[in-house]
Amino acid sequence: MSTAVGSTAVGSTAVETRPAAEAVHKGFHLPSIDTPVSPVGFGRLVRIETRKQVDTLAGRWFLIVMGLVVAVAIAVMLFVEQGDHSYSAYLQASGIPLAIMLPVLGILSATQEWSQRTAMTTFALEPRRGRIVAAKLTSTVLLGLAAVVVAMVLAAGGRLIADLRGAQTPWDMDLALIGGATLMMVLFVLQGLAFGLAFLNTPAAIVTYFALPTLLPLMTLVSWLQTAYQWIDLSVTTAPLTMGDALTGEQWAKLAVSVALWIGVPLVIGVWRVLRREVK
Amino acid sequence: MIQVQNLVTKYGDFTAVDDVSFTAEAGRVTGFLGPNGAGKSTTMRVMTGLTPATAGTATVLGTPYANLTNPGRHVGVLLDASAQHAGRTGREILTLGAMTLGIDNRRVDQMLEVVGLTQKESKRRVRNYSLGMRQRLGLAHALLGDPKVLILDEPANGLDPAGIRWMRDLLGTFADEGGTVLLSSHLLHEIERIADDIVVIGRGRIVAQGTKEELLRPSGSLVRSIDDQKLQAALVAEGIEVTQMPGGGLSVDADTPRVGSIAFSAGLMLTELRGADSQGLEEMFLTLTSDDARQEAAA
Hints:
The complex is a heterodimer.
Chain A: H1 19-24, H2 42-54, H3 57-79, H4 87-115, H5 119-125, H6 129-164, H7 175-199, H8 202-215, H9 226-232, H10 234-237, H11 249-276
Helix pairs in contact in A: 2-6, 3-4, 3-6, 4-6, 4-7, 6-7, 7-8, 7-11
Chain B: E1 2-11, E2 14-24, E3 29-33, H1 40-47, E4 55-60, E5 75-78, H2 90-101, H3 106-115, H4 119-122, H5 131-143, E6 149-152, H6 161-176, E7 180-185, H7 188-194, E8 197-202, E9 205-211, H8 212-216, E10 221-225, H9 228-237, E11 242-244, E12 250-252, H10 256-266, E13 270-275, H11 280-289, H12 291-298
Helix pairs in contact in B: 2-3, 2-5, 3-5, 9-10
């Protein structure tokens, strides 16, 4: 044994004052709080996690750019055929950029805690990490829904302009389409979050997230994988959601399988990792 | 109060924290001193539930940290001032903290004032903060919930001498009001200026602990002999306190003539005997920080 514990105990002697400190800080007191200690409520955590997604320069610009891209998509629609399309067409146009960008919001919500190392603060203030993950899930879904609402409003704005220019096509507000598109956005943003949690690393999560839909179709080149492909590619299984028709039983089953694979599995891995990972 | 008992943290074969036990008392500033990589930060992360312990326990205010209700209201934690989102403003970071703690937002302004950050500075993004400013912000964050305990990892890092003095006064006031402060540092002179009690850690083990006066007092002697173990036994038999120095040799709580005569009676040849000066702690510390010194001692 190369070292030995010192022989004296900490604090065994009388408390001595610090004359220097007192001389400098005569009459200085740290302000105290009267508010009684209350547990950290889940609603509070959701509010905080939502705020954290929009209170950074990057987060704010991301939302602004997303809004602008949707606006551009609608502007393009206005130029094509004098903008004479149904409301559903406008909504579909605004949904395309949204479907690409929203998942990144989910990824960042999960990975930024680790890349910016704010997890140290987050988990020091709420050691029950599962609640933080649940709050992130909730806030990400809420933000996704808010983005869908904005897209719907922008699409309505585009269609109104088209009306002013004398559009002939009926509005055709398709509730099945609106519901389906909303569900698809929520699934995509959840997939982003699940990937973010599983990787806990921004570049890895983003690259994998965007590489998958490119790589999965390669399965169709192998004859005996073609059926499986129909069941596991999320971009294939979610496609019927934006067709405006109710899904058949088989379509729902395919959706469920692909969701379990690409949202369920990474989410389970991610939660397990976050609960166990050392925060440093 | 913070109590750490027989704490062990292992990473595979590597033992980062090896059977560490100490207590940080209320009303005192306890300095946690050790070279980089000695296990200070790991110990502090275990205390705050961020790193799982392999064995042993750490309690804050008598409870494992993770069991505290709204821990930020009891314990102020600053483990790394740079671990903040660079794109957030200082004020926003404090606002998020106040929201989590469920306290009035006025507290944000109060704490900014306490740590000496201006309103203008608080609206800048942390990316543009100096390390000293980040430390002040981190301290403001730790103090937000009006805690009874402060756990601060290298809080004086990046502060200028005036800043260190300011921190000493602030932590002194906090302790005088009954609070517990545990702060770490790898600089002896920093700890000397701020702490009342000192716990020295090296290579994961506690090598010395006591009040600053005890550890720094110029008494006792340092001795080396051809057989330190026999000498230690002889000294202990005389009822003298003996501490093995990490680099070999003994720190003895007796003056040099007494040590010499005991060694003589025991028939042990001394290779070195001198009165310990107040540099004793620094010497031990230097030995800890330098692997070369360890090799020299072994040769």
